[in-house]
Amino acid sequence: MLLSQPTVRNLNVHYDLRFLGDTGQDEPLILRAGGVSYPLVRHNFDSLSANGFEYESEVLPPTHYGVSVPHDTSKVQFIRVYGPPDNQGIPTLKAAAISTSTIGKVFSAADTVKAILFLNPSITVLTPDHSDTVLNHMDDTDELRQMVMMLEQLKDTWNTATIITDDKGQPVMDKAGKPFYTYELHPYLLNLSAGASASIKSKIYSDPSLRGIRWNVQAGISHITENQENPSALAASQSGYHYNLKDGGPQYGISVAVEKLTNSFELDLKVTNSFIRHMSVYATFYKGDGITPIEMNSDALLALLRGENLLEVKEWMDALGEAEQLLLGTKSLKFIGNVSPEGTFLGIPVTESSSLFSFQLPSADPIGKLRLSIGSLGNGNSHSDADPSAAWIGIGATSLMELVIPTVSLIMTVGTESSKMFDTLFKKVKFIAPTVYSIYTVVKDIINDSSNTGNDVKNMIASLADRIVSTVLTGSEFAAELAAILSAEEVEEAIPVVGWGLKALALEGTVAQLAQTVGEVIASPRVVDFELTVTMDASISLIAEADDGQQPEFAATAAYYIVTAQYSDNTTRTYRGVIPDPKAASISFELKNVPVGGKVTFLAAVYSKEGWLVGGGKSDLIDNLLTPGKDQLVVSVNVKQMLYPLNEQTTYQHNQLLVQQDGQYSWQQTAAPPSETAENLGTGGSGHVLENLAGLTLNSNMGLLGYAWQASGMNIPPVDGDNGDNLQLYAFKNIAYGPNPNAGVMNTPKGFNKAPLLAYPQLGAESGAAEYFYLDPTGDSESGYHLRQIKPINDSSVPQNSPDREFDLSAGESWGRFNLLPASMAYHSNGYVVAVNPAYPVMQVLQIPSSGQSDDQAPWAMITLGPGTREGLLLQPELVAIAPNQTVYVLEKGNQRIQAFSRGGHPVAAFAADPAYPYWISLVNHDAAQDVKYLSMSVEIQGHIYVLSQYGNGYEADQYYLDIYTPAGSHLVTQRGLVAASMAVDLWRNLYTLNFQQISSPTGCTEPSVSEWTPSTPRKDEI
């Protein structure tokens, strides 16, 4: 059989070099493509169709062209135009372009700009069709036009030839004795590339045709249900011990699942990586206490490994030799393999490398915990307390594979048929390991530099780029080995321009750019941990409460229950079961392999067959441990009947209003809500004027409402001054929403110039626990906006004038900080605070530390997601709320939707109403002619989502809408005219609002009133 070879076409390349000025009739210009040089000829202006190339009459022809340049449409290549050498003897780089499957193209200044942007490692693709798609996304953008104008203004100075020097300032020479050099982009041009890259990525990372090519999505898991298919739920037991994966993620693009765990503790773990990076995987085994790591030597580790993991680790040990101890772990932290990106390498299909990790758990004693530490290039604000050396191999491999190889491949014209070549490269440990070690030795100081922590990694990546180019790529052994693997000789040609993409990526690493772009890899923690831990069984009893002296029983219509186990440091579990006889006094069931450790609250919700909530209750917050002599955790939950369904006819009715009389607060029963609207807010000045309302939050365990507002006449000084009598300041306070609101009263002794948001868990620990926070708005983006702890009370025995009823604003501790000032934030029961701001298309996720830190040592929030329209990306995120099952909901004004996420920033398929779009629900629009302001979002126990919005200026009552969406994502009901500035829904569907009505506190301070609303109760024949 005769096989045809790939078609190679002869292309007449036309280049418009006007932006460089008159290059001169006799100035030699050389086109470099595919390792071969071709002379460019000045165009004959008398023949506008020379060489068969046609021009539109109104378009001037290009200035130069090259005849019969080979052009393989199956390959993408980086072509360059060189002029005469400069005074250093280095050829001047006049222009560049990306050559793709498109033929008959005139290359201009715009193509040089596109080439600069295309070399950004987070944009590059290596397949022709997809590269055209990416390049087309650059067209007709303001950012591209700005760069083109700058390029034309800079003329020949758009890049500068610079000789590479070593640490002693001496030139680094190639094998021919000539100095290596780079073409450094002009700073103006380079700085503009950051904004342009962000704009382009918002398009290409939303383009469905680039899925699996430039981006992937791993669906998140916000909670685990007993009846869902979940590989991580597999477990084995022996001698009473059970094991389960604590939280398999995904987190920051990584997930882990238990594929097999036998009774003899042979374990298979599958690790999946959806971001374009290579990652190193390390394991630490802990003794039965789950605290003490087990030390082992290399032989002991090898005795535990199985299959490909055993072979891979042996290869790395052999390849690293004496350097083994530096990269393969410590006495207890052990390297067990690598994980590459899924499916393709920048568009080129590659064999998925093994992500299955097989080993035998240590058998001397049942272990208490196995921790996988998975690391790569990222910021130093890791959520891990593991040794940071777990990231070194991942950093080196990513630097080589994802940052350097794409540019080398473009220079060497690597095509789609080269998948086997990449497969070989990825598994060539004898080449990769020494290169990774070289990268480690030259960049370890900048990676470990304490100034390169937090989210801003610009300096770190810029320095990493310089050192990789100057030290690693210029090594003769590296170039020769890589050339042999890639069957090419032009590896060194990539050195002058590799830095373009790396410097552009570095600019993306600034906080300002991370706030505006899709920065998956560099925005991730350097190390992400997953743990296999001891589990136990539990017995749960639902106890029906007696109603009005009657026999205890569940509601007559009770058909099924859902129990939510909300853990303090683990993924929430939900359990569903049927109620065979609602007249029973109790129902008991067993749970298998539930997590051990931390604290847990069990929420029970009872539903009719129609899905109406007809009963509910919750346990105390308890220690999630077995009691001595018990082989199960035993928990009882009292369930009270309820008559608050939600259906299309549901309306909320005003029930009671917070008033102040005779120096005390009280709830006034009234069906008439306050009549004030946004028109009643003041605009500054002296006296007592309510000016702005900044949000309402609720905590069920302590029965507290917390809210913030701005007013004059607060009778408190500002935090940064002495006299605040006539200032417009923000304050916050607590009240109890039970019968006696005074029991929970707490006030701020000073006021703020910006809104101090509150973050309370919907369920929370006892008084004094580190779960109640306020955002200190006095910071800035450099030092951070700090999360401060507050200690609320709900105790009627504490006098109203007691100092204990003042929030302590003087505490110097921080529990974490945000780079970007949050506009909405919510508390996640795993110990995280999630925040958004409509000015930034990102979500900030802050893991709260175990104790407070000094401000300069406090951890930074992670910046995740980025701009776009597909699942996992955001536009103008206005509000965030967290459901009892730990699903994070973000309301996006820009995309007009509510999107579901896990705390790791992965989209969750939470909505079943439209199978085509399980990750979000579309918001109803009540008046497209008016701007809408989304005021508040809250979620009740079943998962109904409440959204409060205001259309127009909010001066009329009918401009306010309360919309309720079902857990499946369909729109259920709209209630027009429910006027409030903010709202919160408790677990049992009671609604609390922060009103525009102004009242005076017992101490004479200006503040807003608060209302309670209850849903309509059905008739007896509806139940």
What does this structure look like?
With 1023 residues, the protein is an alpha+beta fold. It has 4 domains: 163 residues, no CATH class; 306 residues, no CATH class; 97 residues, Immunoglobulin-like; 336 residues, TolB, C-terminal domain (Neuraminidase, 6 Propeller), CATH 2.120.10.30. Helix content is 16%, strand content 33%. The protein is built from 14 helices and 53 strands. Strands 10, 11, 12, 15, 16, 20, 21, 22, 23, 24, 25, 26, 27 and 28 form a 14-stranded mixed β-sheet that branches. Strands 6-5-2-3-4-1-7 form a 7-stranded mixed β-sheet. The protein has a 5-stranded antiparallel β-sheet with strand order 30-29-53-52-51, with no helix packed on it. A hairpin with a 4-residue loop joins strand 22 and strand 23. The longest helix is centred in the middle third of the chain and has 20 residues. The radius of gyration is 32 Å and the shape is globular.
How would you briefly describe this protein structure?
This protein is an alpha+beta fold. It contains 14 helices and 53 strands.
